[in-house]
Design the sequence.
């Protein structure tokens, strides 16, 4: 899993009509571009078991800087950013990792947010 390395998690939810046959190729291309960036730890895309019109994209990054750098290259701005703009916008999509667990053991991580 991400263990101590994953500090930023991108989670985007989509409503995709079954007739949108190009969506799987678009999300695959987005994953290829994002996971090629230094500091990207991996990503997944999937469709809801109970509602085939619902998709999710999750991508893990080592840091806030890695996340921001991954969105900078021109191919990402050309292919990924338009896709992300189609995600449901009713809640935040980028999260900091505060608890990580593996093999039955959980650890808390300090916040990346600046103290007020």
Sequence:
């Amino acid at each position: 899993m991400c263990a101590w390395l994953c500090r930023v998690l991108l989670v985007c939810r989509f409503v995709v009509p079954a007739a949108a046959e190009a969506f799987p190729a678009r999300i695959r291309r987005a994953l290829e571009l994002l996971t090629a960036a230094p500091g990207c730890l991996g990503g997944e895309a999937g469709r809801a078991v109970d509602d085939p019109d619902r998709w999710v994209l999750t991508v893990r990054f080592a840091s806030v800087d890695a996340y921001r750098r991954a969105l900078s290259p021109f191919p990402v701005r050309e292919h990924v950013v338009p896709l992300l703009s189609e995600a449901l916008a009713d809640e935040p999509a980028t999260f900091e990792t505060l608890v990580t667990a593996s093999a039955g053991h959980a650890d808390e991580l300090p916040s990346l947010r600046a103290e007020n």
Observations:
- Helices lie at 23-35, 64-70, 74-85.
